[in-house]
Amino acid sequence: MRFWMLPAILLLTVLGATMSLMAFDAPERVGVSADVKKSPPKNRAIDPLRPWQHADGRIEHRRRFFDSWDEWRIAQGPDFDHRCGTPSPPPGSPDGVAGFAGSDCDLQQTVPSDDYDPSNGDLVIPVVVHVMQNDEGTLGWIDRATIEQQIKILNDDFSGVGVSSADDTPGAGVRFALAGVDPDGGSTIGITWSQNSTWFNDQGAYWESLAWDPTRYLNIYTNAAGGNFGYVNALPAAGLAGEIEDRVVVSWRTFGEGGDYGSPQDLGRILTHEVGHYLGLFHTFQDGCDGESCSSSGDRICDTPSQASPNFECSSADTCGTVDAVENFMNYSWQVCMREFTPDQIRRMRCTIQTYRPDLAMWAEQCAYTCECDLNRDGRVNGSDLGLMLGKMGPVEGELVVCGDFNFDGVIDGNDFGRILISWGDCIPGPCDDIDTCDDGDDCTVDYCAAGECVSLDIPFCGICGTSEAGSCYESNGSPGCSEMDCCEAVCAFDPYCCQITWDASCKNKALSGNFPECDG
Ligand SMILES: [Zn+2]
Q1: DSSP string covering 146-212, please?
Q2: DSSP element (H, E) containing 457
Q3: Strand partners, 133
Q4: I need a surface site. Which of 15, 142, 258, 511 has the fewest CB within 10 A?
Q5: What's the pLDDT at 6?
Q6: CB of 210 closer than 8 Å to CB of 130
Q7: Nearest of 28, 25, 31, 26 to residue 203 by alpha carbon
Q8: pLDDT-based confidence at 28, cuts 50/70/90?
């Protein structure tokens, strides 16, 4: 190629890239009549049993109005769980996929054989993110930079280098990339945006209009998620993998770092958790304490401790007599404390890809996934990377996705060239890169940075439970809290009076009741 051609190609590619950025079609309206402006909003919900958020922010549900999602959630009762809406198959559910019952990762068991070890190679999964806003465009907006940042967080967590990961956190050898080629073979940025209040409220079969072939793409949708933080419509072994409704849904308020919901759900890890379900993982607290075999009871994973109920903060409890996996992505802990999938969880996910999602992932060279066009891994996309790519122009030999074929279409050409230009400059900077520490020196807070801001979370009952000055848990001790940490936290989670005011006879009786296994004195 003559050098004078370069500016012309640059111009054409930039034009092409800009066009593809703008080329998303106006979505079909589902369930919204043409006279929508005349109709009172309350008549628009398809399913009155599910919450509907109006343009003014109010939530309508079962003919009641709530000013905020928090208010709505509280009204659902103390046992209401809005974190994850993924349905759990009941114990003993048959595998829903004909021919795969008895697989190494069906609904009944996990056989973590070496076939599923990350050392067998990297897998790359093409992703499309469908952003759904309400008709007015007042709710649900997520920009491209936030989406790219979220995919980076997903990759960091799956590779074991997330914000709170330790050096020895295992990597899954699975990475995710916004699709570079759409189902029709066209160039794309892997994102669609639409405005539709029905879809925004997680109603109407939006996937029938929006989904990209679910056998080949991970379809992620953002909307109000029915009041949940996120969900997957079914575990893959339950039989819907690759069907048109196969999807991951994440609330737009908890998508990406520093979302509208705020702490402690502000580190983009709802998506990590839901993709765990999408790849076949149960909650760590599925089915409570393990039965006879850890591989076929509980969460069907042997290297996660048994757990009877979710953890909601960072403190470790022992709901089954061993320390709970508070740091596991498949728990409900504060996101800042989550840091790992275990080796057997990783093998179960890779088994799920190979068994239930065989056309989804591609084998790939190890690339600098955090910044996909940084071919020499120096933290910037610049002329050196362009030179490396130009040297590889042409068809790719073999099936392996090679670094440089950024859109995985089997050829390194102008489309990949276009992606280098879009990524030109420093790799996606972390919004907290410039902040050294957020530690405020208070032992009773957990401090971290999200979206460039320091966040400080109060550790519940800190300094009240488990201190030597606190009295016995099995007496009316005349002061807030008691000396056994686990017992005190469990009782106070149920009855905050015991930690806020005083550990009275009622608290003592709870500790002695046998209803709190943490209280074994
Ligand atoms: Zn979940």
Answers
A1: HHHHHHHHHHHHHHT-STT--TTPPP-SEEEEE-SB-TTS-B--SEEEEE-HHHHTT-S-HHHHH--
A2: strand 453-458
A3: 195
A4: 15
A5: 43
A6: yes
A7: 31
A8: very low
Annotated catalytic residue: which of 274, 313, 340, 484? 274
- Ligand 1 midpoint to CA 215 (Å): 22
- The helix (run of H) or strand (run of E) holding residue 388 is helix 383-390
Domains and CATH numbers, the chain: 10-111+122-283+342-363 (3.40.390), 366-426 (1.10.1330.10)
Beta bridge partners of 412: 394
Check whether 8 has a pLDDT greater than 90. no
Rounded to 5 degrees, φ, ψ at 248 are -115, 130
Distance CA 334, CA 269 (A): 10
Query: Residue 191 forms beta bridges with which residues?
Result: 129
Tell how far the Cα of 232 is from the centroid of ligand 1, in angstroms: 8
Cα of 80 vs centre of ligand 1, distance in Å, is 14
Q: What is the DSSP letter of 66?
A: E
Instruction: Judge whether 298 and 289 are in contact, CB under 8 Å.
Output: yes
Amino acid occupying residue 13: T
How much distance in Å is there from the Cα of 77 to the middle of ligand 1? 20
- The pLDDT of residue 45 is 52
- Which pairing describes strands 174-178 and 248-251: parallel, antiparallel, or unpaired? unpaired
Q: Which token pair is 373?
A: 């066009």
Cα(231) to centroid(ligand 1), Å? 7
Burial class (CB in 10 A: 0-12, 13-18, 19+), 295: middle
Return the pLDDT at 33. Answer: 31
User: Ligand 1 centre from 84 Cα, in Å?
Assistant: 4
pLDDT for 336-384, tens place per residue? 999 999 999 999 999 999 999 999 999 888 776 557 778 887 878 899 9
Structure tokens at 472: 């016995």
Distance from the alpha carbon of residue 128 to the mean position of ligand 1, in angstroms: 21
Q: What is the mean pLDDT of residues 423-431?
A: 79
Q: What share of the chain has pLDDT > 70, as a percent?
A: 90
Distance (Å, whole) CA 37 – CA 483:
61
Query: Residue 257 and residue 262: Cα distance in Å, rounded?
Result: 9
274 is catalytic: yes
pLDDT at residue 368, as a whole number: 60
Q: How far is CA 193 from its chain centroid?
A: 20
Q: Which residue in 45, 74, 46, 70 sits closest to 60, CA to CA?
A: 45
